[in-house]
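Input.
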Amino acid sequence: MKHYLHAPTLERNPKVSITQDEFGAIRMARQALNAAFTLEEIYDLVLGNYRELEVAILAAAVEETTRWKDGYGDHFAARSEFNRRTLNLLSAARLYLDQHQSLLKRLGANPEEAERQRRAVYDASFEYRFMEALRNHAQHAGRAVHGVGTSTTWLPPERRELLEYRTTPYAMKASLSSDPKFKRSVLAECPEKIPIAPAARAYVGGLSAVHQQVRLLASSHIEGSRGTIERAIEKHRKRAKRRFIGLTAIAEELDGSIEEVPVFLEWDDVRVRLARKNRPVTNLRQRYATGRPHDA
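Output.
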């Protein structure tokens, strides 16, 4: 069996011998970085779907300022849009919660601390518990949003200079109670109408707290894996006198079979940028976007 580093390109470059252990370490490092990339990718999916829900709510309020709704058809279209956005968020959250522990294990990290964080967030937040129950409800009932409210408020109240428009998608306790599979302990906590946007903010903030713990658990394993790849790249570069695109760790078996592991980090740099872009938003329940002027 032979193990070596080589860039199978048209340009001639050396085949740099490595040990079987080195090849195995490169393979494991690649698998670990793949898991780390997936963690950041699905967390980005959660945040992206959350942002789309919030933007849809703001867009509906803007539309209210200039367009008169014409009966039930318009109301149904708005509800359908918010339902779709909410279901997208809940599905992305489920994907994250289903995969983050197994991905941590693939990284070589113990996921127990992340699970403890998830349980702590669940216990501490009604909105988080509600969104989890709502997701389970929507899986067989098909709807997460039961109605859409609109309202206007003069600001400031004493001078009535600006008219503020709000759109509020909500779930209804009466609809949830008709589902025998909806968690009864959560149902007992619900008011008659549960606004979706504040619940979504608290939910995504809770998921962010979990992901913050996930990153902490994964960090040393990620650094070690990047170091393994960097050392392999440098080993080949020293012999070749420059870096070659397409560098690969290759194992040739005696029977002629070949295993190849790509050796580069540009794809993992995308993960680094994702992590930098998606900073923790554990206090998201305390944030909201508004078009209100500063002096209103």
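The first strand starts at residue 2 and ends at 6.
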